[in-house]
Amino acid sequence: MPLGSSHGPEAETPESGSADMNPVLVVHGGAGPVSEDVKERLRQGIVRAATVGYCILREGGSAVDAVEGAVVTLEDNPEFNAGKCAFRLVNNVSPVKLLPQNK
After folding, report:
1. For the region Disordered, what residue ranges are annotated (predicted)?
2. SS3 for 40?
3. Domain map of the chain by residue range?
C-alpha cells in the first residue's frame, strides 16, 4: 500500500457521509538534484502547499479545490517552476488544465 494511502476495507468514502474523514494530500515538489542551501526553502514550500490543500479539505472543500489551492501555492512560490511549463499557447496561456472526473 502506498505511503499515505487510505484504501482498504476500513476506509470511509465521501459517499458514506463520515464526519471523521481523514483526508490525505500529497504534494510533489519536483525532482532532480537540489543544493543544500535550497533544500530547506523547498521543504517549507511543499509543506505550505500541502497545508493549504489540507485545510481546504478539512473545511469541507472539494478535492479539486484542495488540489487547485496546493498547486496555486506552488505556482506563487518562486522556488518552484510549477505552472511554467515548457509549452505556451498564444498570449502566454498554458495548455495545462485541471479536469475533474465526474461519475
Report:
1. 1-30
2. helix
3. 21-92
